[in-house]
Amino acid sequence: MAFGHSPNIKYKVDIPVLCKRDWPRLFTYAFIAPLYSLFVNMADVFWNSKCLCLLMVFTNKMFQVNAACTFPSDFQNTWMTNSRGTWTVNSSHISNFQTKMTTSGNTLYTMACNEAFSGYYVLKSEELFNTTENVYTCLYIEKQSSAKYTYSLLTTLSTVATDVTERVSTSSTALTGSAVCDDTEYTTSGERTYVALLSGSESQGKTTCPDVIQGIFTYIGTTCNSTNLDICTDTSTLTYNTDTCSESMMFSQNGTLYCVNHVLTSGYYYITLYNNDPSTPDGTTYFQFSCLVLFSSGTYVLVSVSPMECQSGQLPLIVPTGGYVTSLQNDEASSCYTAPVEEESIKTTLIIVAVVLGVVCCILIVVIIVCLYKYNRIKKRRRHTRRLIH
């Protein structure tokens, strides 16, 4: 019995000893372990979140590099153009983009904004040409007002079908911006400049016509020589007296057209007109747009007229395809006729120079006369003085 242990005595002795010897472990299990577990879980969440954020950023950058370009917000609308039909534009696509891909007619494509390249937009068709090739073109746009843009296509003129040339490229492999935008030297000159008017607000695209055709003209060179053209009452509008002629003047039925754009290149004016007929033009006799290429020679203005857009190589004395050439004679006796600003400026400058030279000459003559008079008097005095001495 001396060497035995009572259960109660053992219980009372072992508990304090155990607590005394193992209290660090108990403290760790009771307090440190839960805190450590919480910390580890939070670290895992943070690390996973950090990785997720980095992954999102990397993915976003990757998509930004590969993403299609975006058109300006003001351009995202419906536009009536004079060379490519009526467009519906959203942030990344132009629907109903008209191309002359075949001799039988026009083809409409949905063109995606594929790349922004040096201020231009590389467009790539969603549809295929000849079942294997995408259509590409280089678009340059410039905002003129909320209701008007001008644009150019800056791809080298090339043949894409028999007897059809276009400012587009076709390829079964992806083309880069430098390959598509390869003809940017004349970005906004002459025949290269087209017009897009906001659908439903076309009249807001009016602009003042060039000075050389601001006046009242007799329309000559056709079967309607007695027809008058008024570009004086409203210098942004061409108004014909159609009562004396049944011929379609500049492809308009009612004889009212708006100047919507003009460019001066190499001495020639390239003018785009919008036909304000109340009914939709038939596209055969009457057209929604027409192009004038003209130059002024005294009281005469020589003009070539083509339907819709200005044509490649169009000049005042060369008959364009589907168009004609004519002359306008300015009525100098009309109250609205004014000489060109350049002529008046030259005349005024010459008059001023002549007056100034005349005044200078008069002053020089007077000075010379006075000098001679004084010189003669001094000379006489010297002679008289010498005689008295001698």
What characteristics describe this protein?
single chain, 390 residues, alpha+beta, Lipocalin, 3 domains, 8-stranded antiparallel barrel, 3 helices, 19 strands, elongated
Name the helicity range. Answer: 25-40%
Largest sheet: 8 strands, antiparallel, barrel
Count the strands?
Answer: 19
Percent of residues in beta strands: 25-35%
Question: Could you walk me through the main structural features you see in this protein, from its secondary elements to its overall organization?
Answer:
The protein has 390 residues and is α+β, with helices and mostly antiparallel strands. The protein folds into three domains: 1-66; 73-201, no CATH class; 206-330, Lipocalin (Beta Barrel), CATH 2.40.128. It is 29% helix and 33% strand. It is built from three helices and 19 strands. It has helices at 7-66, 177-180, 341-389, and strands at 78-81, 86-89, 93-102, 105-117, 120-129, 133-145, 148-153, 158-161, 164-166, 169-171, 194-198, 216-220, 227-230, 237-240, 256-265, 268-275, 289-297, 300-307, 324-330. The strands form three sheets. An eight-stranded antiparallel beta barrel has the order 1-2-3-4-5-6-7-11. Strands 12-13-14-15-16-17-18-19 form an eight-stranded antiparallel β-barrel. Strands 8-9 form a two-stranded antiparallel sheet. β6 (133-145) and β7 (148-153) form a beta hairpin. The chain is elongated and about 125 Å long. Residues 1-20 and 49-67 have low confidence and may be disordered.
